[in-house]
Every structure is written in C-alpha cells, then in structure tokens.
Design brief:
Elements: E1 7-8, E2 14-15, H1 17-43, E3 53-58, E4 66-72, E5 76-77, E6 91-92, E7 98-103, E8 108-116, E9 120-125, E10 131-134, E11 142-146, E12 152-160, E13 166-176
Protein name: Peptidase C-terminal archaeal/bacterial domain-containing protein
Organism: Pseudooceanicola algae
Length: 179
C-alpha cells in the first residue's frame, strides 16, 4: 500500500483503497461466476442417475424386435461432456430416454437402432458401465450392435447430430451371434 492509503496496481498506477476494494469485489465476483458456469457446464451432460422410461425385456423377448416412438435431441451438447468414451458430436437430454432392464436368457447379440426425421445419434451406458456412441453406423441413422451383452440396466439416449429435436423411433432386437 502506498502513502495516504493509496494502493498501487500491477502497472504502477495508484488508486484509492475503496477503488482497490471495489476491484477485489468485481474480480472476486467474476471468479465466482466463472466457477459457477464451469460447474453447471460439467453437470449439463447425460446423467445415468436420472430416470428414463423403464423397459423390461429378455434376450428371448427381443427376438421379435420392439419399437418405441421418441423425440430425439436435447440441450446437452456431447462435445462439452467429459466422458471416458469415443464421443463425437450430438445433442441429447440429460435423463436417458429409456432404461432397458435386460435379462440375458440366450447368447444373442443386441442391436439398438434410432431412425428419425433428422440425423440421429445413440448414446448407451451398459449394465457393465461401458459407454457406446454412434452417429451414422446405420448409414444416415444411428445403430449400436453389442456382442455378448451382459444382464443389467442399459441407459439409452436418442439424440440428434444437429442441435434440434425430431421425431424418431428406437428399435431394439436380438439375434444369434454372427448374424
């Protein structure tokens, strides 16, 4: 602090004690705002703790494909999420659209397909805690094919490549391995 209660800033300019306190409040407030925005950005991602529509099926049940209407998309930008997985671009809702409670009764593969009026993406967190993402494996539509799937809860998000919503259909089916 300089003479007569003056404070010198990092550029050598003098300012009054009240000016310095005001700067401290402004920069302190900006720091708090920045940390709040960063925390909310980290939270604004798909959340496995939230609930989706419950589906209960075994591998035998899904031998005949089942289909569900859904609005694909959401306000969660996957590019901004910190996942341990191979994610690219897409927008989904925070809660999963569906939660598949899967019971393995046969050694069948499990396939998820999302077809919509727009470019769909699929995001799945498996019963084993593994993440899978697809944008265009089914040509213009998203498709995830799991070999030797385990029993458990599968959180399923149907999203869009672009930041818009559209009507879509999720199809889930099983079939013998190597089909």
């Amino acid at each position: 602090m300089g003479p007569l209660g003056w404070v010198t800033d990092r550029y050598g300019a003098q300012m009054g004690k009240n000016d310095a306190m005001m700067m401290h409040r402004v920069f302190g407030g900006l720091t708090a705002l920045t940390l709040t925005l960063l925390a909310s950005a980290a939270i604004a991602c798909p959340d496995v703790e939230e609930d989706g529509e419950d589906l209960y099926y075994s591998s035998d049940d899904l031998w005949n494909a089942v289909a569900f209407a859904v609005i694909a998309g959401g306000d969660q930008d996957l590019d901004r999420c910190d996942f341990n997985g191979p994610f690219t671009t897409g927008h989904v809702a925070a809660p999963p659209d569906f939660e598949l409670h899967y019971r393995k009764t046969r050694d069948f593969d499990l396939r998820f397909t999302a077809v919509g009026d727009c470019d769909t993406v699929l995001l799945i967190n498996t019963g084993a805690g593994n993440w899978f993402f697809d944008d265009d494996d089914g040509q213009y539509d998203a498709q995830i094919h799991l070999t030797n799937p385990s029993d458990g809860l599968y959180d399923i998000w149907i999203g869009t490549y672009e930041n818009r919503n559209c009507e879509a259909t999720l199809t889930i089916e099983t079939f013998p391995e190597d089909s």
